[in-house]
Amino acid sequence: xxPIKHLLFGESGEDEPGxxxxxxxVERLHQLRRGTEAAVASLPDEHQALGRRALExxxxxxxxxxRDGERAPGAASRASSRVARLHFDxxxxxxxxxxxxxxxxxxxxxxxxxxxxxxxDS
Length: 122
Description:
This protein is mainly alpha-helical. The chain has helices at about 5-10, 25-40, 50-70, 75-95, 100-115. The chain contains five helices and no strands. Helices cover about 65% and strands about 0% of the residues.
């Protein structure tokens, strides 16, 4: 597996990012978390603190969605979309592209706030 593929897909080495829309969004969230772990592990030292914070937010949101997912199935889909955007920016940062830290910080705060309170469908 090439390094970029490892960063995008994590240890599983799946050929496609995420899973198709018709498949389980909770599983997609698990896959994105694995890819995020790989991306964070590859971040340069100066971005490790930001990466660890992002990963903590992703893991916390993943736990909340898994716990509350049956009551709010749309929440898993929305959460995986947010995590996918953050994951892509972390991969960009890991391979040396400029990913504005302000945008990453804002995305992390969004995940953290999404994890507060019960998961509900709007």
